[in-house]
Amino acid sequence: MASGPVLAGMERVGIRTDNALGLSNPVLRGIAKQIGPNHERAMALWQTGIRDVRVLAIYTAEPARLTAGQARAWADDFESWEIVDIAADLFVEAGLDALIPVFAADEREFVRRAAFAMIAGMAVHRKAEPDATFMEALSLTAHHAQDARNYVRKAVNWALRNIGKRNLACHQPALALAEQLAASDDKTARWIGSDARRELSSEKVIGRLHHKQRSKL
């Protein structure tokens, strides 16, 4: 089922392929659906170290049984942005929010990315989450906005934009932070802020947020 073109595509978008077979994520999701969840098996699959098998491990792990210790052990093995982002969705589903500040404080590039990938995912999928959670996340975002490493700065930007697009209550504080960062003397913070400001101040985003607000009334 491995595909040379899939492997080449991974390389083009910066996914490590030295330990990859070349199975696309839709193929892996199909396998996961076929074999079903099994937490013990997922833990064993992760230990193979093979990119495709680790994605399958994430897809078939049981969120209710995933512990913070297991998530931290997986994070120790992070070596590609793709694995980080897929695992972050699982960590959010598992309710491991307490790991966000832990991951953010970690100096390793992909572990820190996991914190902001989790925030970005929560902003979209946690519909009932109090807005206060995301106000705290904005503080974390501001704190790490000068991390110039590619996969961190992009994740910080992603988290900021997703918080701002969550609802009108989150939009203004996120846009204000984007404005603040855009005026920073730091090159990375300026890029994060300018890019987020561009999207959050667009008529399309603002119109969608107002429509969402009216729909709730």
- Quantity of strands, as a count: 0
Low-confidence stretches: none
Shape: globular
User: How many helices in DSSP terms?
Assistant: 13
Integer average pLDDT: 97
Share in helix: over 70%
Q: What is the alpha-carbon Rg in Å?
A: 18 Å
Instruction: State the order of secondary-structure elements, H for helix, E for strand.
Output: HHHHHHHHHHHHH
Main structural class: mainly alpha
Strand content: under 5%
Reported for the largest beta sheet, the result is: none
Q: What separation lies between the terminal Cα atoms?
A: 50 Å
Structure characteristics:
single chain, 217 residues, mainly alpha, 13 helices, 71% helix, globular
Explained architecture:
It is a single chain. With about 220 residues, the protein is mostly helical. The protein is about 70% helix and about 0% strand. Helix 4 packs parallel to helix 6 and helix 10 packs antiparallel against helix 11. The longest helix is centred in the middle third of the chain and has 17 residues. It starts with a helix and ends with a helix.
Write a brief caption for the model.
It contains 13 helices and no strands. The protein has 217 residues and is mostly helical.
Write the layout of secondary structure elements.
Blueprint: H1 4-12, H2 25-35, H3 39-46, H4 51-60, H5 68-76, H6 81-93, H7 99-105, H8 109-125, H9 131-143, H10 150-164, H11 168-182, H12 187-200, H13 203-216
Helix pairs in contact: 2-4, 3-4, 4-6, 6-8, 7-8, 8-10, 9-10, 9-11, 10-11, 10-12, 11-12
